[in-house]
Amino acid sequence: MKSYNKITRLLIAIVVIALPLLSSSYLSANSNSLMDQQVSEYLSKKKGEQVLLLKQLVNINSGTLNIDGVINVGKLLEPEFQAAGFSTHWVDLPAYMQRAGTLVAERKGSSGKKLLLIGHLDTVFPKDSPFQKFTRTGKFATGPGVIDNKGGIVVILYALKALQSINALKNTDITIVLTGDEENNGKPVTISRQHLISMAKSADIVLDFEPTVSGSASVGRRGTTHWLIEASGHEGHSSIIFSDQVGAGATFELARILDELRRTMNDEQGLTINPSTVVAGVKASYDKDTGIGNVFGRTNLIAKTAIARGDIRYISEKQRHRLITKMTKITQKSLPGTKTNLQLEQVLPPMPTTQDSLNLFESYSIISKRLGYGEIALLPAELRGGGDISYVAPYVSTALVGIGASGEGEHSPLEKVDIDSLFIRSQLAALLILELTGP
Ligand SMILES: [Zn+2]
């Protein structure tokens, strides 16, 4: 009897301890599924509206240099963000940059993490591009900027609207920065990216809504450095090339350098080097800003000048330093009668992968699994180009990249969006933001 009593008391104790545990886990699972359902219902009802807004945004040309167009895209969005409970303002860039500036939408609070959401208003398609209109064909739609990045913007907007509809934005601290010159930054970038960087410094987490690549997301991006190699040699008649008098000529010197670069660098993981343009002749010049080269030469003359221009992309500052050391050595070797000048300019720092970013990615993937979309694949940094996220990466420990609309063909007249992805990515973004900003 005594022992029975003991067991009974123990059982009661277990039940008393376990009940609140059971009910709290039940409740949180239940509140997850309730929130999931409410967000999904809201977004489902707004599918038509979301696509219509995307269409309107795409049909306004906003090539980076079409300042009025970029501003008009922003103007269409301002009341939308205001209706979702955000205050909006423009951050202008100095007039000499000839860029539209940046649209900021924000709300202040103290619940959970401070978030910075990044997108851009401009596209690579200028005002006179033949590719101007949104065209829907079944499950897809084509149009300039339809995923890069107007699809991403409507994903941000509707994720926030969905959260507002369930009163989940209360006391959150969220800033949305939509730059007007992502595709062709105002120079110098130390000034055109200054505001973005200062906002990133005060954020805990950055979410970047550039296009989703094949259902994946990433937590790193490669850095980019532009280079220009100019080889000079002696002018002379072709018949005396390789003589002590004139040497090898500038073209052979440049060819040697490019080939050595290819052979020494093509097997390093995460690293690419691409000579995009070459001009060589008795007279040769190249304008870095316009990309236009001028050249004069004859079959019987040795080239005096040979210029190559291109970029290198790398996953870390360490890799960049290693590469630059190699490039410097290779260019300094010089064939007889030639000398070479190497110019380097880092245009984008690399975004290193951190453990905090990997954890954030994991949370995103868990939400996707919970909603029945399966695990999200982690896209290696080398499969993504640079972007605005890269400028802020050195100041942020936690970031998730490429969670905007899905599709393909960005930067080409084949750019298209998978319409369903607007709904899915908005759902995922809303629930991730909810989790991050929760008390
Ligand atoms: Zn983009």
UniProtKB/TrEMBL annotation:
Residues 219-336 form the Peptidase M20 dimerisation domain. InterPro entries: ArgE/DapE_CS (IPR001261), Bact_exopeptidase_dim_dom (IPR036264), Peptidase_M20 (IPR002933), Peptidase_M20_dimer (IPR011650), Peptidase_M20A (IPR050072). Keywords: Cobalt, Hydrolase, Metal-binding, Zinc. PROSITE patterns: ARGE_DAPE_CPG2_1 (PS00758). One of its GO terms (molecular function) is hydrolase activity. Pfam families: M20_dimer, Peptidase_M20. Its cofactor is Zn(2+). This is Peptidase, M20/M25/M40 family. It comes from Pseudomonas synxantha.
